[in-house]
Amino acid sequence: MRDENGNWLDYAEVKNDYLDETDGFWRIDAWETGDYDEEGKVVAYVHDASGDAVITEPLARLSEKVKEAIEDKQREIRAKSVKTVPDDYVCVHIAIEGRYDAYVPRGTVDEMKEAGIQEYYGADFGELHDVDCKGVVYIEDADGKYLYEC
User: Fold this and answer.
1) In which element (H, E) is residue 74 found?
2) How far apart are CA 134 and CA 82, in angstroms?
3) Which terminus of the chain faces fewer neighbouring Cβ atoms within 10 Å, N or C?
4) Residue 90: phi, psi to the nearest 5?
5) pLDDT of residue 13
6) CA distances from 94 to 49, 101, 102 (A)
7) CB-CB contact of 34 with 11 (8 Å)
């Protein structure tokens, strides 16, 4: 939405509260004015399982409200997919062709890393390899703070 001088104006309202269960996408709806008679339009979609987002309206990419609505929905999706982990455990992310999350007891970084690798090996997925020369093992505490990355 632009003003009379062509300057970008953000949407008056943006919502992310409708899930179409037939396709599994949350709709990000936007209204250009505060007029209650105005019909909103879908400007983006967020997949309920993966959190992947697609912005369908080019100008919506400029909207902080749209970005915030997408990020909020992605946080909700991540939160519902996270395991509840006891306080004395941390999560060791092991990057493979996908990702394997091992939940291990707290300890020294070396102990947590080794426990994560051993749990991964016990999962019978095969040998741990570096992926495109990127880090292989990440250790994250319950607040999502990275404690170790290699």
Assistant:
1) helix 64-81
2) 24
3) C
4) -125, 165
5) 92
6) 21, 6, 8
7) no
**Exposed e or buried b for every residue in 38-75, given b needs 16+ CB within 10 A?**
eebeebbbbbbeebebebebebbeebebbbebbeebbe
The pLDDT tens digits for 101-139 are 888 888 888 888 888 888 877 775 455 555 554 545 666
Whether the CB-CB separation of 65 and 29 falls below 8 Å is answered with no
Helix (H, G, I), strand (E, B) or coil at 97: coil
Q: Could you report how far apart the first and last alpha carbons of the chain are, in Å?
A: 45
With beta carbons less than 8 A apart as the criterion, state whether 74 and 46 touch. yes
Find tokens 């409708």 and name the residue: 18
Integer Rg of the chain from CA: 21
pLDDT at 36: 79
Cα separation, 51 vs 76, whole angstroms: 9
Tell me the C-alpha distance between 132 and 106, whole Å: 29
pLDDT score for 133:
45
Evaluate whether 13 touches 31 at the Cβ level (below 8 Å). yes
Q: What is the rounded CA–CA span in Å between residue 82 and residue 51?
A: 13
